[in-house]
Design goal:
Blueprint: E1 4-8, H1 20-25, H2 27-40, H3 44-50, H4 53-57, H5 59-79, E2 86-89, H6 93-101, H7 106-126, E3 129-135, H8 139-149, E4 155-162, E5 165-171, H9 172-182, E6 189-192, H10 205-215, E7 227-228, E8 235-236, H11 239-250, E9 254-255, H12 256-262, E10 268-272, H13 279-285, E11 290-294, H14 297-313
Parallel strand pairs: 1-2, 1-10, 4-9, 10-11
Antiparallel strand pairs: 3-5, 3-6, 4-5, 7-8
Length: 314
């Protein structure tokens, strides 16, 4: 029996029309959209399928919509007979992994993401912050360089996307100095990145403090499926562990590279979300593994073919 890992993408995976072909066909998908509407009084059908890219990209809309679609896709995947051995997520995709793991409900996830988006938006509105993607440089070298320009935690590596690809966030003054320095290093690639992905550093401290109050209103259950958490080794399995770690996770770097290393134990890795954001990196790490996406009708057929054949061989 193949060991299965599910990974859920975060901000940036959204697009207008995401999941519509599956929503039109599967009642499982429709049921979660209806539940989400009853919880938030927000027309997610219109937002996901008939809004504008600009509207959908707004933090509060994107956070909730990505979470909802990932949860609906997960339920459909289960209906197709796919039962994961472990789940994980990048950025806000972590909340979808908690739903898939059985720790939080759809209403609780929407509730927390609505609050987090509101608090995070205020930080971005009030501070002169930015983010850049830096690639083709080693982790150790970039950490040393960022430390030189941090100036009392005004700059930090927010996301370790892979072994040589990173997101650095902070105040624009410090970012500009860092960028000028990096441009002089041969081979290093630099590009602008959206701060909506998450600053994952002390810069998120105020949002984390505000969210802490609302965590007390959520019942975090022990998981049915283990959850891999970025920045921690091993699994989180109890509701109390997950609750305690959630606030801390907002203020520490999101180490997706570490998560990728932990996926080495699994034979099939499925990215469950609007569109492929993580699969290409996973394939580079593990060319020998089966790496799939699950977000549209064509993906359903591939899943049926793979797992149908596996069940027939048992």
């Amino acid at each position: 029996m193949k060991k299965i890992a599910l990974i859920f993408p975060g901000y940036g995976s959204q697009y207008v029309g995401m999941g519509k072909d599956l929503y039109d066909e599967y009642r499982t998908m429709q049921e979660l959209f209806e539940e989400a509407y009853s919880c938030q009084n927000l027309n997610f059908v219109k937002l996901c399928f008939a809004s504008s890219d600009q509207d959908l990209a707004e933090i509060v809309n994107a956070f909730q919509s990505i979470f909802l679609l990932c949860c609906a896709l997960f339920n459909l995947l289960k209906e197709l007979g796919v039962n994961p051995d472990v789940v994980t997520g990048q950025g806000i995709g972590y909340f979808a992994s908690l739903f898939a793991g059985g720790s939080i409900t759809l209403p609780d996830g929407l509730y927390l993401l609505n609050k987090l988006a509101t608090f995070y938006e205020k930080i971005l509105d009030n501070e002169n912050l930015g983010m850049i993607e830096v690639s083709e440089i080693s982790r150790i070298e970039l950490e040393k360089i960022v430390e030189k320009f941090a100036d009392d935690n005004k700059l930090a590596i927010a996301v370790f996307k892979s072994k040589n690809d990173f997101l650095v966030g902070g105040y624009k003054e410090q970012l500009n100095k860092l960028e000028d320095f990096l441009e002089k290093i041969e081979g290093v690639e630099i590009s602008e990145a959206p701060t909506e992905v998450g600053l994952y550093s002390d810069l998120m401290e105020e949002a984390a403090k505000q969210l802490q109050v609302y965590l007390e209103k959520v019942d975090f259950k022990d998981v049915e499926t283990p959850v891999i958490v970025a920045g921690r080794t091993g699994f989180l399995t109890t509701g109390q562990e997950i609750k305690d770690d959630l606030i801390e996770s907002l203020t520490r770097p999101f180490d997706w590279d570490q998560v990728l290393d932990e996926l080495k134990e699994y034979d099939v890795i499925i990215e469950v979300g609007p569109r492929s954001k993580l699969s290409d990196v996973v394939k580079k790490y593990y060319p020998e593994k089966i790496v799939l996406t699950f977000g549209n009708k064509a993906d359903v057929e591939r899943i049926k073919k793979l797992f149908g054949a596996e069940q027939n061989s048992e």
